Amino acid sequence: MVGNRQLTEGLAAADLRVLVMCLYHLTGDPAWLDAPYRPARDVRLIADPAAGFEPAIQDEIRAAVAGLADADGAFPEPAVGDPGRERFHEMLSVFLGEQVPPEYVPMIREDMGFDPADTVWPSGAPDDAAGRLDVLVIGAGASGIALSAKLSRLGIEHTVIERHADVGGTWFANAYPGVGVDTPNHFYCYSFAPNSGWTRYFSQGAELREYLDRFATEAGVRDRLVLGTEVVAARWDEATRRWTVTCRSADGSTHARTAAVVVAATGHFSHPVSARFDGIDTFTGEVFHSAHWPADAALVGKRVAVVGTGASAMQIVPTIADSVAELHVFQRTPQWVRPVPEYRLPVDPAARTLFEALPFYAEWYRFGQMWRYGDGLLRFLRRDPAWEHPERALNRINDRHRDEMVAHIESELDGRRDLLERCVPSYPPFGKRILIDN
Q1: Which helix (H) or strand (E) holds 221?
Q2: Angle, CA of 372, 378 and 382, to the nearest 5°
Q3: In the predicted model, is pLDDT for residue 1 greater than 60?
Q4: C-beta atoms surrounding 50 within 10 Å
């Protein structure tokens, strides 16, 4: 039970476009999908939670939601659980204020839980399911432990090999200052294992690792884990139709395992590449990669050089800048950066009330984040052959994004024309993944 006071405080900070969808689910009244309750189109990464509604309509929407709760802040069973495909497609378009292509509907219905996403045995698991197939999964990061949970549901025998001392993948291996996501947390989690308790909109590494650790325990993945073991080779035997996989333990000893199927869930960046340059072999100070950050690293009062201006540097540099004596950043390629004020904001406990208590609030909030940080950008990344400034951008909207990000870079550099020329990229915005400037 959340209580009406918490609910009122949560509604004050709610995303109004999400509340409109919740009202339709709770009441079944199609009037909530029509004027004057249709949210305004907003293509920004962080959309205005007021959704373009006049203050009187905002108050009406909040009051309607509050009026459906009982004295303890609990809501009734939704009048519309699954709205069906056609109505759901309409809801997606109303929610965004733009037409969503119909090919997205099946994927988003699965993500929201309206349609099953799991593979299932067509007529129930056979008695010998575990003996028919055995799988070896390499890696216990986000992909590896999710796959393990799915295989367990099917009754398929499997083992997960992980070279680190525990699960978590990226979030176990990386412990540099400021490490965290630059994708919103309510999207950066499993759709089948949502977390209503995120403490930040963009969580840091420890909280992400805890989430994956908890999931691995609750899903029974730990019963399948072999930790501190690295896969160094895999050979396919055509005669036996099986893989022979060579594993190396932490003590350096090797052993072989066999499996019918091997899945590499090792991620893209599991083996970092360190920069090599003249003088590194005789340098007497400390040198380490961000992915191998020493637990006892002491940077306070030291002269520090950071090589690279990618996502990790965007997190490390602001975190250490005020405590070091000097900080030098070496850049090869300029990066497009966009400010996101929510990056360091905590999730207000009252706002968490909605994720926990209001039916369908978490699902629709997640969809909004997924669309804005993902395929919602796609239409703005197509080259317009008639666009008169192809040296600047792909199209008119892409050029507007460019102007916004250049304005931000100019404001941050404040008169340093020498730096401005070096920090504005020559390629179009979103030509590669942009950075979140915290």
Answers
A1: none
A2: 150
A3: no
A4: 17
